[in-house]
Design a protein that fits this description.
3-stranded antiparallel β-sheet; two-stranded antiparallel sheet; mainly alpha
């Protein structure tokens, strides 16, 4: 395809013979990555796919797109396959293509499809509305694009635009007229937009078709039609749903000669909104995809397998909320080894039990009530746990344990201050009878603390730690019991641990 450095722009209202006179020169067509979004684009949203294809064919023949000046990878130019990819995008409403869909339609690899989409974005023909994501463990989300007519196209053909609402974004402006010099070129672009581009199968056929391409008045080829089998277009309109598409002004096709053959006029098998009605298989796969996203124990399961398991309820018109209500009534397993098998068991005969919308609505209401009750119960548990561990320490309830703790405190205090009392008053020390706890008493205290620790009770050891410190508690109970009691007490304060009895 011939590439020129610039394209002459016809001055407004030139003579009929096509003389240009004083001409402005268009710069190189390149849109940086930061301006490839709908909010930052300088173009305007195409009112329909047919008008957008006219701009696509103009870019293909202008030679303004030279990506090798900016990067070394990707396409070398805007070629016939890029036009074919744009033709597929014009059939989608909304423009929400997945890489797998474009790979099946074009026969290209994933990287080549990305290269052609990048070429459409870098020429200002596509703008991101939502950029797709790929996350581990989740299905890939396709990007949503807006079909945009570049500002260079309007300037080259002398198209006049107007923005009726001053508060609306700049990309919502619409076309109101065209210069006489641009009408002839618009007619040629209209014929090429109405003709379907074929998918190339070999380099020989692509070279042959490139030589037979039509030249525009500026001397460069407008488009190239390659050999191969024709692709059947999808039915329905290609409107992007923008505010520019709902205006009463005619599209560019009606202002040019030869624009009566529109590829988007057939809507025999489409709904009023321009989209195909989903069939039985589509509803099954849609429900399966929603189930794998909503239910945690179905994460990572095969969507086709889940679609086959839930085929009966999907054909009966069930939604994912109806299935959640049925699973609440049916009961869910705490441990799941194979999600698709468990779902098949739980959904067996569900469409016969809840055979009316009223019954399904009642099941959903019960499920929502159970969810609310469980939420309130969790809140009460958290509050009770906080009141238990955030408040002041309470003494042990057992009288024998309280007596042993008091005796241990008294003897340890007397043993710690016994030397000073003996120096000052030996008689008082003899009368007080201060002596260290015997080994038998320490064994009994340790056995009691170990038994309560096995039941999850740490009050005996923690009370000694609070009164005498950790070193004093380790002299009585040992370092092992004190360490385990403190670990258990610190873990019980966390909401992630629950200590109970069976």
């Amino acid at each position: 395809m011939a590439a020129t450095a610039a394209v002459a722009v016809p001055a407004p209202r030139p003579s009929v013979d096509g003389s240009i006179g004083d001409a402005a020169v268009l710069p190189e067509l390149w849109v940086p990555e930061a301006e490839q979004w709908l909010s930052t684009t300088s173009g305007r949203v195409a009112p329909d796919g047919y008008s957008w294809l006219q701009a696509v064919h103009w870019v293909a023949g202008s030679g303004l797109y030279q990506p090798r000046r900016h990067r070394s990878t990707g396409l070398r130019s805007f070629n016939a396959t890029t036009v074919y990819v744009a033709q597929l995008l014009a059939e989608l409403s909304p423009c929400f293509p997945g890489l797998g869909y474009l790979q099946r339609r074009t026969g290209l690899s994933e990287r080549m499809v990305e290269y052609h989409l990048a070429a459409l974005r870098e020429t200002g023909l596509l703008a991101y509305i939502v950029k797709g994501t790929r996350r581990r463990g989740e299905p890939a989300q396709a990007s949503e694009f807006a079909r945009v007519i570049p500002l260079e196209f309007d300037e080259a053909l002398g198209i006049r635009t107007r923005q009726h609402d001053q508060d609306a974004p700049a990309y919502t402006r619409v076309m109101v007229g065209i210069a006489d010099a641009g009408r002839e070129l618009m007619g040629k672009l209209a014929k090429k937009a109405a003709r379907k581009v074929r998918r190339s199968r070999s380099k020989t056929s692509s070279r042959t078709s490139t030589k037979a391409s039509v030249k525009n008045p500026s001397g460069s080829s407008v488009t190239a039609v390659s050999g191969g089998t024709r692709c059947t277009p999808m039915g329905g309109s290609s409107s992007t749903g923008s505010s520019a598409g709902g205006t009463s002004f005619p599209p560019e096709s009606e202002l040019a000669s030869g624009g009566s053959k529109s590829s988007t006029a057939k809507k025999s098998k489409a709904k009023a909104g321009g989209r195909r009605e989903m069939n039985k298989v589509g509803r099954r796969f849609q429900l399966a995809r929603e189930l794998t996203q909503e239910l945690d124990w179905l994460r990572g399961c095969s969507v086709p397998r889940i679609a086959w398991v839930a085929r009966h309820v999907a054909d009966a018109g069930w939604t994912v909320t109806d299935i959640r209500g049925w699973l609440h009534l049916r009961g869910e397993a705490a441990r799941v080894r194979r999600g698709s098998g468990l779902l098949a068991v739980l959904l067996a005969g569900a469409e016969k039990v809840l055979d009316s919308p009223e019954k399904r609505a009642d099941a959903v209401a019960r499920w929502r009530g159970g969810q609310e009750a469980a939420r309130r119960h969790r809140i009460q548990q958290v509050r009770a746990r906080g009141e238990r561990f955030d408040g002041d320490w309470e003494a042990p309830t057992s009288r024998s344990v309280q007596r042993k703790v008091e005796e241990a405190f008294t003897r340890l205090r007397e043993a710690a201050s016994g030397g000073r009392h003996q120096d000052h008053d030996a008689g008082a020390a003899q009368q007080s009878g201060a002596q260290d706890p015997s080994e038998q008493e320490l064994q009994e205290l340790r056995a009691t603390a170990r038994g309560e620790l096995m039941k999850g009770e740490t009050t005996l050891i923690t009370s000694v730690v609070n009164g005498l410190g950790r070193e004093g508690a380790e002299r009585i109970f040992g370092a092992g019991l004190v360490r385990r009691a403190l670990q258990l007490a610190s873990g019980a304060r966390s909401s992630l641990m629950t200590i109970g009895r069976q």
